[in-house]
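Ticket #4471: structure export looks truncated?
Reporter: QA, pipeline team
Priority: medium

Steps to reproduce: submit the single chain below to the structure queue and open the exported record.
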Amino acid sequence: MKQTPPETQSPPRHTYRQRSSVLLALLFVLGAVILVVSALLSWRDHPQPLFVAWLLLGSAVAWTVFVRPCVVLDQDGVHLRNILRDVDIPWPLVSDVETRWNLKVWSGDDGYTAWAIASQIERPKVHASVLPGLSSKLDGFTGQDSSTPKASTKVTARMVAEAIDETTEDYAAAVADGDLQLPVDPAVTTRWAPLPVLALALPVLAVLVLSIW
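Actual output as written to the record:
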């Protein structure tokens, strides 16, 4: 009799971004959609391609600046998704976290700022381990496979910093106990993110071409 292999759960992955920024971007995009629809309805009598191109550019900027930036914690490390660049910091290389203005993750002498998380009024801390087999020290998430905090949880720089600090400690303890192995030659990687670059470049090009034309 053929046995069905057990389903494997993907490692927990928690994404942090501040809802106020997302709400601001959604309001702008909603207004832009209304204006684009209005322009299309009157296109036959009064075409406005340059106006539509500006609206598309504004929507791309709103998404790139306010929605895309986030901080992702998973089994591999801390991932900073900024406006145009991404930074991946493995857990063994996380040395400190700073929350003076924005969340800033240090790896040795190098600091990497997270555009998504600014310092705000603090609330009770929330932490959920992203390391399989390790129990969460603090409650506050809907479950181990949850990717975002509960709706009532306000994301702050200190809250994310505490999650990073405690998960770094969990990682070191798991390595010491032999539950995890250190990666071979870990390194911090920074790279340009192609999607936001393309999302901004295309409407900018359209605005330039239509302005000349």
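Status: closed, not a bug. The export was complete when the record was re-opened. Leaving a note from the reviewer for reference: The beta strands are 14-16, 70-73, 77-81, 85-90, 96-98, 102-107, 110-118, 189-192.
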